[in-house]
Amino acid sequence: MTAVLPTSELDRGAPRWMTWVPWLAVVWAAGYGCVRLWFALGHEPTWKLPTADLLVPGWVSVIACVVSALLVLTPARTRALMVLTYAIAVGWTAACALALLDVVAGVLPGLGIPFDLAGMLSRLGGLTGAVLLAGTALSRQRQLDGSCLGCSNRRRTATSTPKWAIAAAWIAIAGCATRLAAQAAIGFDAVSYAPGLQMILFEAGFLLAGLALPLLLVYRPGRVFPRWMLLLPGIGLGTGISAYFGVGLIQMTAAALQGKPVYAEIGLPTSFFWVAVPAYLLWGLGLAVATYGYAQRTRKPCKLCGR
């Protein structure tokens, strides 16, 4: 298995994380699995958000922990196993999509979004597993390739911003603009957040993330900023928005197929959600892809093969 390959089977110059990340993934699956089992047996705390801590039932999360451990412990012989490990990591990210609300509630407490410390810690645990599983899958990908354990000999440092990254940035901007247009159609006073300074800061951050950040990722003005200053919000917001509203769109579709109202408790027209939620999803996906293009353009050569 990738997680327990003997040291002799790994290139001595390989990144050290390729050895210990899979082991941490197993430890995480065992520890977090016990927490999920305790919750599933009826001992979970009272959550402040309308839903539970994760967007999956309790026993599903327990089974997911078992599956995660089995995937890591299974010898990495095929790419199918690697792809499945990536898929489980994506699944954990989607299950913890409410973490986006944790960030907003923590940074802007005056908006009126409940800050649930217990729920946040639980989601942080799930996201930790997603990162460890993705790291395990990447380790397997590099070992299966075999050409370079540092980058699979597939790294490319782009000399200019790829056209697909520029297109993704404009898709993100279009998604943000569509979301604003949907709000304008029903009135900017039809919001559930408390007015005041926190709301102004939220709107400023909204515009920065939806208009300024995508442009900075793909055009020359963004080069004056330190790499991490654009990568961190690009990865965090791109992943968070995509996960949160991707799950939301699935829930809306399921409700519509069952003839149920869509988010009736919020009191806004159904048509608003069918425009706003897909727009958010386009925004998040576009931002994530543009960030990947930025990472390709600004990455340093591999320390092992020099590419």
TrEMBL record:
Keyword Nucleotide-binding: no
Keyword hit for Membrane: yes
Record keywords: Membrane, Transmembrane, Transmembrane helix
Ranges that cross the membrane: 20-39, 59-76, 83-108, 120-138, 164-186, 198-218, 230-252, 272-294
Superkingdom, natural source: Bacteria
Protein's UniProt name: Uncharacterized protein
Species for this entry: Kribbella capetownensis
